[in-house]
Amino acid sequence: MAGLVLLAALGLVVLTMAADHLVVGAGRVARRLRLSPVVVGVVIIGLGTSAPEFLVSGLAAARGDGALAVGNLVGSNVVNVTLVLGLAGLLAPVVVRASVVRREAPLSVAAVVLFGLAVWCGLDLLAGVVLGVAGVAALIWLVRQARRESGPPMPAEVDEFLGEGTRPRFGRDIVRTFLGLAGTLAGAELLVVNAASLAERLGAPQVVVGFTLVAVGTSVPELVTAIQAQRRGESDLLVGNLLGSNLFNALFGGAIVGLAGGVRDAAVGLPILGLMVLVAVVAWALLFRGRRLTRPEAILLLSIYVVTLPALL
Q1: What is the dotted CATH code of the domain comprising 2-312?
Q2: DSSP H helical segments within 102-204, as ranges?
Q3: Which bin fits 303, alpha (ψ -120 to 50), beta or left (φ > 0)?
Q4: Each residue of 213-233: pLDDT tens digit?
Q5: What is the dihedral sign for C-alpha 75, 78, 82, 84?
């Protein structure tokens, strides 16, 4: 038992560290290829920070552990807008632009709702294709909207994320990208295998392990990014990263699960799916109300996670 826990924890550590190198390496390679900062920021960094969720859920679905795969995606979406956003809000009030709560937030909520419906109706191959097409459409829309923003399109945020002031070497960054990808795959495999074995040994449903241990672990990159952004006063980067993570988890993560094997049973119940949609709507409403998240509201989000988790389990 202790060995399974240690191996799963090792998988989380390897996954987190390797995913960071994967994103930074791919982002620097993209910049050296003269891709637009918008493309690097939205596509490379946005999708890259969700790589742990993608790989863990994809590998779990391919192994036939569909409940673990979906539990990870649902749990990550809940953790992002309750635990992560709540902890960031405790550090300082989260202030966002009107465009974020008017465009990105409802798009993220819509993606979560679509994903929830797909899981409830049966996340099969067809549902995976639908989610994938919706994800591509959302990604194109986000890139176009970012290009329409006045001023330079996120150059400071992108440069800081990739290492401002550094002089990357093209060959070294390519190697870093591939090693990061290999490490992410190895960490995901280590986590999935041992998490599934741990669930079987404890007699716990896989969805419970996915919703708790695996979901919190794969959300570590979002948590670290959120805390760093909040300390620097970059609330837009913080909220955009969390909303974008939920959108990509729901659409592309759901598509990967559907294409990799899907969920052949109803292990993920309506209460958990309802919680995922509810917290997405609540977070949107709190941000929309005053374009800021105060400390009392951050405590509310944290309380939702703390209170509802034991009830769901």
Answers
A1: 1.20.1420.30
A2: 105-121, 125-148, 155-162, 170-202
A3: alpha
A4: 777 777 776 776 677 667 666
A5: positive
